[in-house]
Structure formats: C-alpha cells, structure tokens
Amino acid sequence: MIDLLLAGIENIIHLKYLVPLFLGTLIGLIGGGLPGVTITMTIIIVLPFTFGLDPLQGLATMTGVYVGGSAGGAITAALIGIPGTPSAITPTFDGYPMVQKGQPGRAVWLGIWSSFLGGLLGGVFLIGATGPLAAIALEFGPWEFFALFVFALSMVAGLTEASLLKGFLSGAIGLAITIVGFDPIMSVPRFTLGSEFLRSGFPFLPVLIGIFAFAQLMTDIEQMSAADRNRAPIKAPPLTVSHLKVLWEILSRPFLLVWSTLVGILIGVLPAIGGSAATVMAYDQAKKFSKHPERFGKGNPEGIIASEASCNANVGGSLVTIMAFGIPGDAVTAVMLGAMTIHGIQSGPLFVSQHPQIAYGIYAAYLLAHPLMVLICAFGARLFLRVVTVPKSILIPNVLVLCVIGAFALNNIMEDVVVLLIFGLVGYALVKARFPLAPLILGLILGDQIEVNLLRAMMSDPNPWLFFTRPISGGLLALSVGSAIFALWQHQRHKGRAAQAEQNPDF
Amino acid sequence: MTRDGVAGLICLALAIGMLVLTRGLPQSPLVPIGPDFYPRIVLIIMAALSAMLVASDLWRQHTQAAPATAPAATAPEKRNYLLVGIAFAVFAGYVVLLPLVGFRLSTFLFMAALQAVFEPPRSARRWIVLLISALVTAAVTYTVFEHYLSVLLPRGKWTGW
Question: Which chain B residues are Cβ-neighbours of A218 within 8 angstroms?
Fold first, then answer.
C-alpha cells in the first residue's frame, strides 16, 4: 500500500497533474470563500474544464476544489463575518469576534492550520479505511447493496432539518426521475412520451447542475439589492502571525483536534450529510467538552479549531464512501461520481483494485492539496478577499454560462441544456416549497442502482423475505427503519420544545 | 391550502399520472418481473407521501383555524421575484439562441442582457464596461474550451459558427 501511495505521489507531483491540482485548490479556495457560492457550485463550475483532461487530471482538480473549498469558507467567515459556504457558519462564531478583537492573522491561520491538520488526519483514515471497507463491500450481494442504498436514502431524508415528510418525498422524487428511460432487463422505454432523447433517461449531470445551481443562483438573485450591486471592495487587514505559535495553539489541544477530526470523518462517511453538519456537530462537541464553554462565540480558538479540523476531515470521510461503496458522501462527491462515469470509471468496491493508479492518485492529490492550500493562503490570503467580493451581477451570468457548457459538453447535444433549464425550474420550485434537496440528489444518484440490485435479487430468488433474513441486509433495513423512527422522534421533540418555548416566551 | 399542500397535490398528480402510464408497459412471458415492477413501487411510495403531505397541511390548517393569533414576528425579508422571473426568461432566451446563432454570439448577448438586468447601466461608461465584460466572457470561454480543452461548443444554424 505504501509503495502504491508513494507511486501515486510521484505521479501527482508531475506538472501534468500538479498544475490542475494547484488550480483546483485555488479555485476551491475562491469558490468556498465567495459568499453564496458553495463548494458544490464551485465543483459544478469546474466540471466542464475536466472533460478535456485525462481522468486523474480531472479528479485531481476536483479533489483540489473540494479541499480548498472546505478551507476557503472559513477565511471570509473570519474576516467579514459571512460564511463562504454553509459549512463555514461555525467559524464565524469565534473567528469574526477574534478579528474584531484585532487578531485577524490568528483567526485566519488558526482556521487554515486546523483545516490542514484535520484534513491530513482525515487522509490517513481515507487511505487506511478504503481498502478494508471495499473488501467488506465485495462480500455484498444485491440484497445487501439494495439495503445499503435504502439505508443511505432513509438516513439522509430523516436527517434533513425541514419536514420529515418532505425529506422522504424529496428522496422519492429523486427516485422517480430515474425511472424514466429504458428498464434494465428488457430495455423497454418507460415514460418517454415518444421522445427519442428520453429513452436513455434524464442525463444525470444536467439534472444535478440544474437543480443545485439554479436553486442557489436564483435564491441569490431574489436577495440581490442595490447595496449588493454597489458594494465597495473590502480592504483586507494584515494577516501576519507567528505560525509556530498558531500551530502550538492547535497541537496543544490534541484531544480537541483528534475528536473534531473523528466527528468530521464520521459525518463524511455517512452518505450525503455534508460538511455543515460536521462543523456544527464538532463545534457543539467542543463546547460541551470545554472547561470554559462560556468563552465560545467570543473569539475562542477552540471553536475555530473544532470547526475547521472537522470540515476538512469530512472531505476524507466522504471520499472513503465514494471509493469503497460507490455512494457519494455529499453533493460534491456526487458530481465527482458523475465525472468518473464520464471518464468510464465505475466507482465502488472494485475501484481501488481495478484502477489503483487513479485511486492512489486521488489519495496523493488529497494529501498534496493540503500543503498547496497553505501555500496559496500564505501568498494570497489578502488578495483572496478582494476576489471574493466580486459583484454578483458579474458572477452569476458567468456561472450560468459555465453551467451551460457543463451540460452541453457531456454529449454535445442541446437537449441536455434544455434538461438543465427544466430542472433549474424544478429545483427552484422545490426550494421555494422548502423541500430539502439532499435526499432528492441521493435518490437521483442511487435510483438506478437500487432498481438494478432489487431486480437482481428478485431474479435470483423471488423470496422477498431474504432482504430481511440475510444478516447484513436485514440489519441495514432495520437501521433504515430505526433512523426513520429516530428522525420522527427528533422532529416531535423539536416541535414539543418549540411549542413549550412559545408558551413560555420568557424562558 | 399552503404551499406544502399545493406541492403535495402536484406530486400526487404526477405520481398518479405516471402510475397510469405503467399500465401500458409491455410484459414478457420469459421474464417474471416486468418493467413496471420497480416504477410502481416508487410511484406508490411517492403518491402515499404526497397524500400525507396534503393531509398534514389540511390538518394543520384545521387545527390552527384562528389566524388572528399568528404573530407577525419580524418584517418579511424583501425578495425580488420579478428579477428571478426575468433571469429565467433571459436564460431561456439564451437556450433558444444557442443552436441558432452559436455559442460566441449567444453568450455575448446573454452576458450583456443579464448584467444589464442585474445592474442597469446609467452611463455610457457603464455600457462600455458591460459590453467589454460580456465580450471577454464569450471570447475567453470559447478559446479555453475549444482550443485548450478540446470541448466542442454549440455552432449556430443561422451563422454557421
């Protein structure tokens, strides 16, 4: 394994791969830092640029975006108090107050170094755990895969903050989108309404780009005001700091660093939950374990360390899920999964053994993206703040053009762009109806696999009880039911508390 | 009925409509499971969840019958839906123009139009800046994708390029 990793690093440090990785990390830092542009959006923007690259170049670029984006959000969060990405909400709690106390360099670099260390620890897990987990997944039959996908979907739908019912319905909509097109056994066209184009189903990436990009961009447009349009560029404060002192500040809290990293990894491994849950949970845990919880929210370094270490460790966890099971850990890895498919690479348990050069290339890219991120921040953190304040009136049209290129370049047909527009409208409508998008995306990604595995299982043995009597499959299905019941209980409890708070507004 | 109820009704109608369509799917005597097997499971789940959403919305309205007690907590955030509508329309125009006049011209027009919508230029200088930025986006994206990344971009039926 070490030999393969060293070979992967040797491969990645060639300019052919290092340049895309560097550019990806830089773009990720900028995209992650731009308020209103998430990492998912950044990776969608980058996607068309990877079509002309070889698979490892493309995946190295995306890995760079993912790593850079996870750290970039914290810089704007600390300096201007606006989270660049949803996962960068918690760094605003302590980073911004620290900046206001006159310590901008400390606030920013605590975040960057924590991201670096958390990310590298996440990398150790990524490299160490992918193989064994893939070996477990190799033992899976269609019953187990079906149950695993159902578990992933039920958990994501249940964990959404919006209504539980809408979470499940959103997942069902995602699954319903995938039933359009040829059926996997007889190749009978379904729900195509006579359209030749729809015979192979809705193309995954235009649907994903449409739903995600439009839902977000149109929400940004809604909130555009004259103040946004005429916003003056922000002057960045000097960020000089003793790096040794900052590193010591982090390393002198080994438990906090390791615990936050573990939280990030765990959330990353769980399908489609994403970085924001990881940072919020790690922040909450850090506060609970702290001797001085009252200092949180007032510029406490522990808050920054917990948030940022978990955020980048979450990236490692997400990559494990996609590489071992072929299930995206979040929306970013969902786009990466789509990019892999475009290059003819099937992600899943056989990925590491069938494509060791690419798999270890991704590990190497992940590890190298972290020092690159530190390097970019060291030279351009102040400049970076000027870039992220680019007016939305210029940014949004440019992003839309890149979305069109991304959709069109897949098959060089205009129908894909029409699909982009249609699902843009659908995504925006769903956001307006307050539907969570994560379950829909997961349903969209897993729909075909759920159908194929269900049919394979039923064709090899028509006894449906096997889904429940086979230990792993039955266990996963029980966990699915358990997670739905847990989510229901949580929602009821939350409702109860809200009602109580309304009755006793003084408390 | 609130937007939850309306969304539920739309999803319910879609699920039922698609369920009806599954009746026309051909079956094979050689294969025990037909092409309608999985879609029916998904659509029945979708229909049931949609119906539950509609019912819960109606129930909520029934139990919260007196809207007079609803507190007006804070002033609602001002949202510019007209701008969203125009942005969608401009984008739809872009999608229509792309195959007719090609990537370069349609992208230039789209960029100029959408920027003008977002930030209407009030001076000749602003117009020049806007047109130059539209031109730069069209030219740079075309050059990078076509020449450096070997990604083909739409050609125009009318223009031939």
Answer: 84, 87-88
